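Table S2 (continued). Query chain:
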Amino acid sequence: METFLLFATVGFVAQAVDGALGMAYGVISSSVLLAFGVPPATASASVHGAEVFTTAASASSHIWHRNVEWRLLVPLAIAGVIGGVLGAYVLAGIDGDVIKPFVVGYLAVMGVYILWRATRDIQPKRIRPAWAVAPLGVVGGFFDAIGGGGWGPTVSSTLVGAGAEPRRAIGTVNTAEFFLTVAISATFVWALVTGHWKDADALTNHAAAVGGLVAGGLLAAPFAGYITKVVPQRALTYAVGGLLLVLAALQGLQLADVI
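Corresponding output:
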């Protein structure tokens, strides 16, 4: 019960931040699981299993509050699924830590750039053509499966950095994430069934943690769309840039075995 309540709290906080800013649920949840000694592939599978439920609730909230730019959603979701499936298959067979330093560097650079944009009060612009976001979706999906939380930081930050309205970028990325998490979770199941995933037995040892992540995330997810809708654009931009730097710093400290 203590484990369930601990991870329910982690899930609530992580989802509250993720739903409002388009990132952090996967990174925070994965980081806590890894800190408890959960293998990388098991941590990623656990988080994505939980996110099937939390992203569905969060996406519904963003759709209700009209935060989704539909013309970008389809190419982003399809490309994200492709990248996510590839990443999940790769992670089930190798250690994903090899690619993490590149992700950390990217997050830090994007965080600084987005904060710079916020100080310049640059007006949002429409991203054209819509299919241009497809390569970003592939990379974001791959990083998400490998790192257990790279979708939001990679995709949301890039869209905001490219000039998209923060509210629309966050809502669209959160909604597309539902399809991504379903695909990644299905790939982990397939890897388990075919024997490609050697350490899958560890999943049964962390059922309470996953259940807590789901319960906490579901409590926070319905408020996601409203928070993103009412927060001023510049404040949202500052928050996205600042959170990216925090996430980059935390992951950098993990890679250096400081935490």
